[in-house]
Specification:
Number of helices: 18
Strand content: under 5%
Protein name: Phosphoenolpyruvate carboxylase
Order of helices and strands: HHEHEHHHHHHHHHHHHHHH
Radius of gyration: 22 Å
Distance between the termini: 11 Å
Strand order of the largest sheet: 1-2
Oligomer: single chain
GO biological process, one term: tricarboxylic acid cycle
Organism: Chara globularis (Fragile stonewort)
Shape: globular
Largest sheet: 2 strands, parallel
Number of strands: 2
Enzyme class: lyase
GO molecular function, one term: phosphoenolpyruvate carboxylase activity
């Protein structure tokens, strides 16, 4: 998850794939039996996703009849909260572990070279966006990340250090904040640019990518998980957050990111041979459609609540008291009466309820 924050999910997943393969190769050379220990969170950016597909996408030789996994706290109840759920989860792990041992899939060198090329482009684009001097200010203004860090809602502090940079932010709030605004930026940023570069370089690469999607479990799972996130995302909602919370000089960055979102979605569907998201998973598609009317009002309520909270307690910027909400309001009598800068009664409770509701609607959260 921290590698995803540093280089983007595509490069992080591929780097992990290669590292596991090298570990197994070295272990075989010296006759050592290796059991790899995986951590699975709720979000795609933190190892989440369907268990069966995740295990099938592991490098050849890394799952030899055994697998060790730690399940992150936020999805323990979802996977093991009831007896039937518990046995269903264990059956999924067992079946996938047996299947991947019986039908290992080797990765061809030419496909690995193409992945290396795409990850180089993806990482460069991911870092370019995050290093934009406007990005941190936009992230803090357009998402509830600062409020999340101030509320007693997580198991750990939101930051490892007290500076304002992305690198000091823990992976959970980094992903959680973008999930709340339905833009899911850490999952797809850089992927669209990588796909466009290799296809523009040689149009025949599109057929290669389609072959990779149908025959290589690692690549299929990677693209399918990103596609699932696009099915849950909605740039219209992200634009609403910008209109209520972000100052005029930063909104252009939001427009640029939403354009990248749409371009990436288009190229991803093209590579998977799908006309619409989740054409290959109608059951999940239907569940997302059913949850949509319940989740969207929570997004509207959350954006309005954030605006009210920031009218009383504006977002601090590094080294100045700049008002990113564009409201021109600094400190109200409420804050003067509450030196701990607590929020008005009911606002924090409302925000927590919307956070929990949106997280439940998205299913893949912290």
């Amino acid at each position: 998850s921290d590698s995803g924050k540093d280089a983007g999910r595509l490069s992080a997943a591929w780097g992990l794939f290669q590292a596991q393969a090298k570990i197994v190769k070295m272990a075989e050379k010296y006759g050592i039996k290796v059991t790899l220990f995986h951590g699975r969170g709720g979000t795609i950016g933190r190892g989440g996703g369907p268990t069966h597909l995740a295990i099938l996408s592991q490098p050849p030789g890394t799952v030899n009849g055994s697998l060790r996994v730690t399940i992150q706290g936020e999805i323990i109840e979802h996977s093991f909260g009831e007896e039937q759920l518990c046995f269903r989860t264990l059956r999924a792990f067992t079946a996938a572990t047996l299947e991947v041992g019986l039908h290992p899939t080797a990765s061809k060198p030419e496909l690995c070279d193409l992945m290396d090329e795409m990850c180089t482009v993806s990482t460069k684009e991911f870092r370019r966006v995050l290093q934009d001097k406007r990005f941190i200010r936009y992230f803090q203004a357009g998402t509830p990340v600062l409020e999340y860090g101030r509320m007693n809602i997580g198991s750990r502090p939101s930051k490892r250090r007290c500076d304002m940079g992305i690198q000091s932010l823990r992976a959970i709030p980094w992903v959680f904040a973008w999930t709340q605004t339905r833009v899911h930026l850490p999952v797809w940023l850089g992927v669209g640019t990588a796909l466009k570069v290799v296809i523009d370089k040689d149009p025949a690469t599109l057929d290669v990518l389609r072959h990779m999607h149908s025959e290589w479990p690692f690549f299929r799972v990677t693209l399918d998980l990103i596609e699932m996130v696009f099915a849950k995302g909605d740039v219209r909602i992200a634009a609403m957050y910008d209109s209520l919370l972000v100052s005029d000089d930063l909104r252009i960055l939001g427009d640029e990111l939403r354009t990248k979102y749409q371009n990436t979605r288009h190229l991803l569907l093209k590579g998977a041979r799908h006309s619409h998201t989740l054409d290959n998973n109608p059951g999940l598609k239907q569940r997302i459609i059913l949850r949509e009317p319940l989740t969207t009002p929570l997004n509207v309520q959350q954006a309005i609540t954030l605006k009210k909270m920031r009218l009383v307690s504006p977002i601090p910027s590094a080294g100045s008291a700049e008002d990113l909400t564009g409201s021109g309001v600094k400190l109200s009598p409420l804050v003067q009466l509450n030196p701990d800068r607590s929020y008005a009664p009911g606002l924090e409770d409302t925000l927590i309820i919307t956070m929990k509701g949106i997280a439940a609607g998205m299913q893949n959260t912290g």
